[in-house]
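Researcher: Structure for this, please.
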Amino acid sequence: MKKVNVYKIISIVAFVVLLFILILPQKYNINKKQKAEECIRNMKIIYDGIQRYMEERQEDFTGSARDLMRMNYIKKTFECPENGVGDKYYMHGDFESGEIIVTCPHVEKFHDHKLPESILE
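Model: Predicted structure, token format:
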């Protein structure tokens, strides 16, 4: 009787470990997708802040997210969630052409960290 219980416990533990191993990669991919979505959301907020800055001031924007925050065009500064501290976005706005560039510092490594074309039109 005791051997049967031990085998049942070992089987259950093995089954749980197998499930964990199968689910772990899916969890990792979801986390990666969430970080990309957060990065794009951050860039969209910065993009909108630069757009409002240029409309109100009728001039180019050259600065940082901290500058936009100080002038109340965004509520806080943003960093790419992929690596954390110090990962500032590159940003520039050309008033004459209306072109606004907001780029993730990790776009070469994470190709999905780009603003969609629909936003840029």
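Researcher: Any notable elements?
Model: The CA atoms of residues 65 and 77 lie 5 Å apart. The beta strands are 61-62, 90-94, 99-103.
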